[in-house]
Write a structure and sequence with these properties.
Layout (H helix, E strand, L loop, with lengths): L1 H51 L19 E2 L5 E13 L8 H11 L5 H8 L5 E7 L1 H10 L4 E2 L2 E6 L7 H4 L11 H5 L1 H5 L8 E2 L4 H17 L4 E8 L5 E7 L31 H11 L15 E3 L2 E3 L11 H6 L3 H22 L24 H7 L9 H12 L3 E2 L16 E2 L3 H17 L13 E11 L2 E15 L6 E8 L13 H4 L1 H11 L28
Parallel strand pairs: 1-6
Antiparallel strand pairs: 1-2, 2-3, 2-4, 2-5, 7-8, 7-15, 9-10, 11-12, 13-14, 14-15
Helix pairs in contact: 2-3, 2-4, 8-16, 9-11, 9-14, 11-12
């Protein structure tokens, strides 16, 4: 009986064991199937991301892949401005538990560019405020290590300018709400925040390499000549594209400070200057177009100053003889240029000035555009002085666009900071005859090879241009100790591609040049150094076996015997 009972219990236990084992096996199989299904889904998603979506890179299926604000790039795709998720450091004063004075001292040690007093003011304020709108991960870790619970580290969209202060006046910056304040950030604001457009970068016309070279050469010249400021632009004469634009001193759009806000003035597009003798080629071109100058060999009296209506016009470096048109430009004669303008007349001069847009703000996308100072009364004296760049003030951009028309065949086009695709350039308007433009290319080349622009010559690049040195206006007249020195150039003159404007504000000169402050000694050398740097980047290769044919004009230049 006992044996039968034990046997029955064994059978019963064996049945339960098999039942439990089967149940466990079933559960394992279910878990295995779930794991396989999960693995299959993940693997499928990875394949989709790496293969299928890579095959269609331009298709965005989710707003996750679209930046909060569109990128800005140069003409070659180099990033100039972009938005990313960054760190900020924020304080809620009422939640601070530690000693606020000690905390302010600790923060000032971590961020030397902000004083202890400034931090203490924020820590003792009545409302939450930012200690740092932008902070690096390492900075966040250091502040976090202080252990103050009243300090927060929110993640926010951050606008970064990876090239730092490069092209700062072109780009501008955004405010705390992410809206463009100046420059192209402001001009393109609607496009940059448009959900349907912000996924595609906005390509500017500038080349960051050319921009860096321009800023470098201007900064060197500004430092060497102890100048108050400097400005420059490189403009494509065929399309109106700005390849580079610089205004010095600069500011860093990543770090907007009160101390550097004064540097935000764009000297190329916003400030107006009397640009002196750079106007003389424009006057000669207008006279050629109007037919008041028909023979370049005709000589004009430059032996003595012109006295008209109580005003005296004289030459800075008088030749004390009669000069023809090529000699007038080569030696930069105010007297003969005034006579040419007088023959042209008020209507002819004013018509040329207006066709070049000198009576309105410069044409370009940014809002920072200065209004020219136009003569209140355009009488005979004004007509003669405007001819050599006095009595009218314009921006360097005005001058660049005018010189582009002067050398490109006579077509004026508005400048643009947006990349222009081939065949899509603005139509423009004719302001000079093609024959006049061809003649001016010869004359501009002669100024550099034989005249006041010699210090701008760079072997193989066939540079042409004109110096301009103008005294700055002051109360009751002009300040003879303050000059704006400008060199307006184009290259290569046998087939012009680019205009270059280099300007120094109040240069002091150098000991090597006897502290000469005029453009031939201060601004012209900037062009000589800059063009060989940027020419190859812009597709202009030096060739010392080519040049502008000026053989018919060379005999008109008088050379002393012996």
């Amino acid at each position: 009986m006992t044996t039968l009972l034990a046997s029955s219990r064994k059978v019963q236990f064996s049945g339960k064991y098999k039942e439990i084992s089967a149940s466990a096996h079933f559960r394992l199989m279910v878990l295995l199937l779930v794991f396989i299904a999960g693995f299959t889904i993940v693997a499928g998603r990875l394949i989709s991301l790496t293969i299928l979506e890579d095959a269609q890179p331009t298709r965005v299926s989710s707003a996750v892949y679209v930046p909060q604000r569109g990128d800005i790039v140069d003409r070659n795709g180099v990033a100039l401005a972009r938005t990313m998720r960054g760190y900020a450091i924020r304080v809620v004063p009422e939640r601070i538990l530690g000693d606020k004075s000690l905390l302010a001292r600790q923060l000032a040690e971590l961020f030397p560019d902000t004083s202890e007093a400034e931090f203490l003011e924020k820590l003792t304020g009545s409302r939450p405020t930012y200690l740092r709108r932008r902070a690096l991960p390492n900075e966040v870790r250091q502040v976090h290590a202080i252990g103050e619970i009243g300090i927060e580290f929110p993640r926010e969209n951050e606008r970064l300018y990876p090239q730092r202060d490069l092209a700062a006046h072109i780009l501008g910056y955004v405010d705390a709400d992410g809206q463009g304040v100046m420059g192209m950030e402001r001009a393109l604001n609607d496009r940059l925040i448009d959900k349907s457009l912000r996924g595609e970068p906005s390509a500017l016309s500038i080349d960051s390499r050319v921009q860096a070279a321009l800023e470098s050469e201007l900064m060197t010249a500004m430092t060497v000549n102890d100048a108050r400021g400097a400005a420059g632009i490189i403009l494509d004469v065929r399309t109106g594209e700005v390849m580079a634009l610089a205004s010095l001193p600069v500011f860093d759009p990543n770090k907007i400070r009160k101390a550097t806000m004064k540097h935000q003035m764009n000297e190329v597009t916003q400030s107006v200057f009397e640009l002196g003798s750079t106007f003389k080629p424009l006057t000669v071109a207008a006279a050629l177009d109007a037919g008041t100058v028909t023979d370049l060999a005709v000589r004009y009296n430059a032996t003595e100053p012109i006295k008209v209506a109580g005003f005296t016009i004289k030459d800075d470096h008088s030749q004390n003889r009669y000069l023809n048109v090529p000699e007038t430009l080569v030696h930069s004669s105010n007297i003969v240029t005034a006579r040419i303008a007088d023959n042209l007349g008020k209507e002819g001069m004013e018509n040329m000035i207006r066709r070049l847009g000198f009576d309105e703000r410069p044409h370009i996308e940014i809002a920072e555009r200065g209004r020219p100072l136009w003569p209140q009364r355009w009488g005979r004296v004004t007509n003669m002085t405007v001819a050599y760049g006095h009595g009218i003030a314009v921006t360097p951009l005005h001058l660049a666009s005018a010189y582009a028309a002067l050398v490109n065949g006579g077509i004026w086009r508005p400048a643009t900071l947006m990349k222009v695709e081939p065949g899509e350039e603005a139509e423009g308007r004719r302001v000079f005859k093609a024959a006049t433009s061809a003649r001016m290319r010869q004359l501009l080349r002669m100024i550099v090879s034989n005249g006041t622009g010699r210090n701008a010559d760079a072997p193989g690049f066939r540079i042409g241009g004109k110096t301009g040195s103008a005294e700055k206006p002051a109360d009751g007249g002009y300040n003879k100790t303050s000059l704006v020195s400008t060199f307006a150039a184009a290259f290569p003159m046998d087939n012009p591609r680019y205009v270059v404007i280099a300007m120094l504000d109040e240069p002091k000169g150098t000991a090597e040049t006897g502290f000469a402050r005029t453009a031939g000694w201060t601004a012209a050398p900037v062009v000589r150094k800059l063009v060989p740097r940027v020419g190859p980047m812009l597709g202009v290769i030096p060739d010392e076996h080519r040049d502008v044919d000026v053989s018919e004009l060379t005999p008109l230049l008088w050379t002393p015997k012996g």
